Amino acid sequence: MNTAKSDAFWPSYTDLMTSLFFIMLVLYILTYVRLNSTIQLQANKLKIIETVEENLRPLKAESSLFIYEEQYKRFKLAFDVKFGNNQYQLMPDQLENYQETINHIDQAGLKLKSIIDHLKQERASDERLRRVSYVVVIAGYASRTGQEAHNYELSYQRALALKNYWKTKGIDFEAKEYEELVDLQVAGNGWGGIGRLPFEPDNQRFLIQIFPKIGDVK
Fold first, then answer.
1. What is the rounded distance in angstroms from the CA atom of residue 66 to the CA atom of residue 60?
2. Rounded CA gap, 66 and 208, in Å?
3. What's the sign of the alpha-carbon dihedral 156, 159, 161, 163?
4. Residue 63 — φ and ψ, nearest 5°?
5. Residues 6 or more apart from 178 whose CB is under 8 A from it?
6. CA atoms within 13 A of residue 76's CA, in its CB half-sphere
7. Does pLDDT of 10 surpass 80?
8. Residue 101 C-beta-side C-alpha neighbours within 13 Å
9. 136-184: per-residue pLDDT in tens?
């Protein structure tokens, strides 16, 4: 009787251990596949970020037109833009050193367009970049004089004037050809914003920010 019970126990025990082994094996395989997939997705996303950074490098290198502020991750025009008091139009009677300044603004717009066009070409040719688009922000500033609310509106009007001026030169980031690539935003920083310059008149300036938006990576 005892021998019969012992003979029945071991086959059952063996079946149980075999089942547990297969369960653990399946769990291990699922965990490995899931972890490997996550690592691969992160690696792909890192490659996309590195590719985007590389595509923006020419803009960072164009120091005569743009200055890249590493601590704020943004670009600013590398030349002075001086408006008259309460002025915002890019016109001879409202802008100091008009001809020199407007020439620089023309060159900066064309350079920015060439970078955006390059990003568009890269997106079309590289499958990894098909889910990447960009937020392009044109931000205006004002010095801390007069009424704060008025200067916020004034700084926005300056940014809008720059956007509209570039559009008259054929530099239109809201054009149909960019609709899946660029989300253009016009902003007025007024008295606020980080990285303000200590001499307030120097804060009559423009900032250009380009943020990549990376969709789901597969």
1. 7
2. 9
3. negative
4. -70, -15
5. 116, 120, 172, 184
6. 20
7. no
8. 19
9. 999 988 888 878 888 899 999 999 999 999 999 999 999 999 998 999 9
With vertex at residue 24, the alpha carbon angle to CA 20 and CA 25, rounded to the nearest 5 degrees, is: 115
pLDDT in tens, 139-150: 988 888 878 888
For residue 190, give Cα distances in angstroms to 18, 42, 82, 152, 204.
Answer: 72, 39, 15, 4, 9
pTM as predicted: 0.75
The pairing of beta strand 132-141 with beta strand 74-77 = unpaired
d(CA 121, CA 146): 46
Where does 39-214 sit in CATH, by number?
3.30.1330.60
Cβ-contact 112, 59 below 8 angstroms: yes
